[in-house]
Design a protein that fits this description.
Blueprint: H1 35-53
Length: about 60
């Protein structure tokens, strides 16, 4: 018996069931705004450079 011909079709795979409220490109999270990320990265680099310049205790 060919079970593939009975019943409904298969649903689309890997498709989201709904849209997120803060999805990339939406009004709440538009593309291209990385000011927070750049600021955090700058602070991280400053901390890493300061830690690298401090003399290490033997």
């Amino acid at each position: 018996m060919d079970y593939s011909k009975s019943g409904g079709g298969k649903p689309a795979r890997k498709a989201p069931r709904h849209k997120e409220h803060n999805a990339k490109g939406s009004t709440k999270n538009p593309f291209g705004t990385q000011s927070d990320t750049v600021q955090d990265r700058a602070q991280l680099l400053a901390r890493l450079k300061a830690a690298a310049e401090t003399p290490k205790k033997p």
